# Entry
Amino acid sequence: MSICNQNLFGYANHYTQKELVKSQKCVIFTVGMGMFSRCSTTAAADGSKDSLNNTQPAQGTVVFAVDFRFSSAPVEENVILYSPANIALSCNLTSPSTDSATVNVTWKKDNETLRSSSVTFNETKHVWSTQYINQMGNYTCVFKRDQEVKATFHLQVPQIEGKEHHVVSYVGDSVVLVCKSIKYIPISWIWYMSNGSDQQLPVSVQWNKYTVDEKYANITKLKILKISEEDDRSYWCQAVFKLGESKGKVSLKVLTYMTPLKPFLAIAAEVIILVAIIFLYEMYSKKKQMHAGTLRQLMGCNLNVISVQRKSSTLSFINCWRFPKLS
Amino acid sequence: MGPPVLAAAPDGGWGWLVALAVFLEAGLIFGVIRSFGVFFVEFLGHFGELAGRVSWVTSITIAILLFASPVGTSLSTQYGARPVVMAGGFLSGLGLLLASFATSLTHLYLSIGLLSGFGGALVFAPSVATLARYFKRRRALATAVAFSGPGLCSLAFSPLFQFLVDSYGWRGGLMIVAGMTFHLMACGALLRPLALTEDLALAPAPQRSWLAKLSSLFGLALLSSWPFLTFAVSGLLMNLGYLVPFAHLVPHAREMGFDEYQAACLMSMTGATDLCGRLVAGWLDARRAFRLLHTLTLWTLLTGITLLLVPFGHTYPTLMAIDLCYGFLAGAVVPLKFSCLVEIVGTGRILEATGLVHLLESFGALAGPPLSGFLRDVTGSYTVSFIASGTFLIVGGLVLFTVPNFCSCSTTSPPKQSGDPEDAGNLTRHNGDHPCDGKT
# Structure
């Protein structure tokens, strides 16, 4: 496993954030007016180290570097670019042996070869190659001698997360769909809806159907009124950044009132049955007690029936002088 | 021929079914209220209102529940517990059912707050009184079993509510919860009326003016007793902070970035530790190693400190740990408060004292969550809300220090009121004897 070594030039004001992707650890940092975040699948990049040694590139350029050896697994790096900047990607290969062999370096963008060259190992057993870029995409550096190692940088705009679980609403009700981009503030938001045939239509703001609430720049809310069954589809919120756009998906599920009404009626019926059972059991056990009472009467108790009117209930009191009190 | 008259409380038999009924009732009323945070978040999103305004829903429900409990007690002495409880159960379910069709927050205030709250008041007080009549020797055990309801039920309800919201939306979810709440009627059906011999010994009540009746119902004479007054004020302050986590912990967790089920889990774990807290409090009460008032003060202060720590739980394990502590301490405080109240006013006046304390606490319950929500709206996060509620709890605990530090044997015995069997009010673990007997 190789260890990421970041070479940051400029004054980095960084902090770690929660993992953007489950297996990645990310660092966000601002350099000048730009803001970047870098995520790595390899062993934890120690964002607190701010190594200002190593070679100086051109002024105002941010360099993302990866160190590895021939035995390393392929490295994946996610770099999120929020605003335009000069970016340089650097791959740094260390060779364990002292043989001064030639290595073939290839840089690819989205699987198209950009340039290819041969480099020789210098005395310090390092060979590195830098590529200056000006576009988003996936850049790969490939070192080939007898084996091949490579590292891929995924340069992209900030991704918008929609809601993975669908939002449930009812016919005739209104619903609010929310998309957020907390750390990176987009320039604007556009909403699209799916058309069933994989097409996406822009949602036009009509006062009695769709309203877009943009009180804060990093949260957008689409309010849909008077929902009908046709509104059961997916909606996309597109955030426009300086360097590109990204979309998040929110899907809406429309139910009728009959859907929860059926379980409710089932539960209500069950309650009625329970109450009936309880009352029937009580009447049954009272009948048994009454029969037992008549039995005692026959056995010669001194019947002393006192009826006491106590508010609204009547109590009867059977007093058996010769038998133990009723339990 | 009416129900047979018994010489003594059965202490078992049908009584255990009554205990089960009260267990389910407590769970269905308080368990639902505790797990309502899930719906709180949905209301925030759907109605687009501020947290302060949405918090009124929970606070009105609890306030009406506490405020109207004397009404429940008086209706049940008039008509018997069973019809009142069944009517209350019906009203509670109806309130939630109507809430599922709500189009504005005001509808929710009226249907959940007013209707369900009032229904809950009609259910709870008579049920507890009936339970007290069924048990004499084992009353402590029965009440402990019954009051473990909210804890256990909120354990299951919180994730269940989230699941209902995910499947049916908040409207469908409320509808199904209404169906669940209708089971209160079945619980009420279990409350068979019980006639004890002491009822017959009482003469019928003389006609009194409604003002005198009201004043005796609320026990307003108790307000002149200084120990009781400080205790009640402390209860009011405590309630300002105590209920805030039930309303705002789930939204706070969601704002910190945890997902729906993680937040719901926090609430259900509170329910589990609440149960442990109650058991430990019951054990402490039985042991009588320390004076109850001291124990209550200490635990109240600890609960307040735990609330102060909530905003500092940034990771899920930390927040869960703080949350478990809170659940444990808060669960213990409730039975301790009740036992202390008995110690202060004596078992004869406990019924009125409970009514009056509930009345005063209802104001705290009414103001607490909306105040906390307002603080959240003003400052942008729930940090200040939790700090404020923790402070209220700590102040409430400090007020307890001003209760005169002696067993207040000076409370005069209450005038014997007809139609008010003393034993029905004896909901303590002291088994009927006055705690000041034989003590200095």
User: Anything to note?
Assistant: Chain B touches chain A at residues 1-7, 45-46, 48, 77-80, 86, 97, 100, 165-169, 171-173, 175-176, 178-180, 182-183, 185-186, 189-190, 192-193, 195, 199-200, 204, 257, 419 (CB under 8 Å).
